[in-house]
Amino acid sequence: MTLAAVPNSHVRPASLVLTVLNEGHSLPTFLRSLSAQRHLPSEVVIVDGGSADDTVEILTAWSPPAGTAVRIVERPGANISQGRNTAISLAESPWILVTDGGTVLDPGWIESLLDSFDGQPTPTVVSGFFRPTGESLVERAIAFTATPRLTEIDSATFLPSSRSIAFTRDAWSQAGGYPEWLDYCEDLVFDLRLKELGHRFAFAPLATVTWSARHSVREFMVQYYRYARGDGKAGLWAKRHSVRYLAYSGGIALVVVAFWQPIVLIPLVAAGSLYLSKYVRRVWRAREEFGTGLTRGLALVPVIVVAGDLAKMAGYPVGLRWKRQNRPS
Question: SUPFAM superfamilies given for it (predicted)?
Fold first, then answer.
């Protein structure tokens, strides 16, 4: 089968799927970015998880570009995995594109993802990329601190976020779909299952979406608590989380010792500075995209990093406890 565009048309045989929940504030921008794609999908399937705002009204009032069919399904209470699996099961194309309603698609997003399926050897999964944005200073500081830059990515080991990914329906089916028992980190578990099955991944760095971070540090902590809880439920990254506990425990011990031996503050400050330098450099290198308030944004980096670490350390054991009690297969 070929993924070439239909003659005299920019519509290509692919199904774009996404789940939404109370996205009324962001959907208009997303839909405009979808309509502005250089190449359009033949189908869009959207599952609403029970929005209490005007999300469904916005979707039903939307006039899609010519040649693109739209299907809107309401499934109140569905988590993101259930919503995605429902959408994919209803999709008609063998090529599936996945994103989130809170993103903005670059004009070549669909084109770059689909063109990557023509590579050799032929991939069954294409990883897109994402870049941060934000209206307020705090949103930008959180987004640019937490989001890796393209230069940090190793395409051979990169695990794509489902805010920017494409795969074949057969790959999804073989992986058993997204894990519906998992409320967060479901896309990582899905990625790892695909790799375990031997599916070929291609990296399409030009298939980029933008996303906005949480509005406050508190909301960011809630998000990262849930991410870490998802890691615990799925049994992911045990070594990484263990190192974090050990590092912070060692730091607290050195602070206590510093009351009697202030000199120990020197290695503590050095270690902390070395750890934070990665995130400071990340924000600094994005200074042109960051815009106004860069100095204040850099000053927020330590707060954001520590807040995220504390949230992860709180969430991970909760997930582990859930895993012991439920033991999903």
Answer: Nucleotide-diphospho-sugar transferases
275 inside domain:
yes
> Does one domain contain both 185 and 46?
yes
As a whole number of angstroms, the distance between CA 277 and CA 88 comes to: 41
Note down pLDDT in tens along the chain; length 329 residues.
Answer: 334 434 335 888 999 999 999 999 989 999 999 999 999 999 999 999 999 999 999 999 999 999 999 999 999 999 999 999 999 999 999 999 999 988 999 999 999 999 999 877 899 999 999 998 888 999 999 999 999 999 999 998 999 999 999 999 999 999 999 999 998 899 999 999 999 999 999 999 999 999 888 889 999 999 999 999 999 999 999 999 999 999 999 999 988 998 898 898 898 899 999 999 999 999 999 999 999 999 999 999 999 999 999 999 999 999 999 999 986 55
Sheet holding 201-212, edge to edge: 69-74, 40-48, 11-20, 95-98, 165-168, 125-133, 201-212, 103-105
Does the model's pTM come out above 0.85? yes
Of 212, 239, 258, which closes a domain?
A: 212
